[in-house]
Amino acid sequence: MSDTFPRNLKGVLPALLLLLAASAFPPGCKTNPPKPALDAATESLLEANGDTALRDAVRNGGKDPFAVLVAFRKDVFLGFSAMIEQSPYTLLNEFGNAAILLVRPNEVVPLLKTPSVRRAAWVGPQGRLARLDPSLEYDLLDRFGKGTEGAEVQILARFRSVPEKKEEALVQEAGFKILSRVGPNLILSGPISRIPKLLDIDWIVYLEKGTGLL
Fold first, then answer.
1. Which of 54, 167, 202, 203 stands the most exposed, by the fewest C-beta atoms within 10 Å?
2. Could you tell me the residue range of the domain that residue 82 belongs to?
3. Torsion-angle region of residue 147: left (phi > 0), alpha (psi -120 to 50) or beta?
């Protein structure tokens, strides 16, 4: 028995260890770091100089970067290009005194505390920007920098296929009115600040200017 028992254990012990590991981490369970606890001063800063989606991203934590709109106190290219190059943020686009930066959740609060920054707003994962026509993106930057992003614009939204009622409902929930329908395209009217909400809709493949600003 002394000869056979250890040999059998050689196959049994690894299997037992695997079962114990599986029970400790059930299927679908991820070992994500705990969500950061935000103090009152941080909450106030995010409320004053950020928006709800940005605050939620900071609360949820994680390591995945995302794009944010940032309004600076003066022209980005003339005043802050060197600072951004030396920072952990990646500059995706800039116009006037506004920029789109790629940041991580733990970088948002230090960004908002930077004296040259006036405010910031969530845009979304970087990949979604590919669905945004450059001219519309520059309009968004220009208006955010001036604080006039609440003004309404007309937007042509191109869908993967002819949008049905559920897709139209998502557009309306994003804060836009439907002006007309042409095949897989909708002409929309709404505040340019709500463009990130349209980018959340996966059925939309491209956003560009409609007939012009209202």
1. 202
2. 33-127
3. left
Instruction: Tell whether 180 is covered by a domain.
Output: yes
List phi, psi (to 5°) of 95.
-160, 125
Of the residues 127, 161, 184, the one at which a domain ends: 127
Buried b / exposed e over 140-168, threshold 16 CB at 10 Å, is bbbbbbeeebeebbbbbbbbeeebeeebe
In the chain, where do the E strands start and end?
66-72, 90-95, 98-103, 117-124, 152-159, 177-182, 185-191, 204-213
- CATH number of the domain within which 202 lies: 3.30.70.250
pLDDT in tens, the chain (214 residues): 444 444 444 454 444 333 333 344 444 444 555 566 778 888 899 999 999 999 999 999 889 999 999 999 988 877 777 778 888 889 999 999 999 999 999 999 999 999 999 999 999 999 999 999 999 999 999 999 999 999 999 999 999 999 999 999 999 999 999 999 999 999 999 999 999 999 999 999 999 998 644 4
Structure tokens belonging to residue 158: 């191109």
Question: How far, in whole angstroms, is CA 105 from its chain's centroid?
Answer: 10
**What does DSSP say about strands 66-72 and 185-191: parallel, antiparallel, or unpaired?**
unpaired
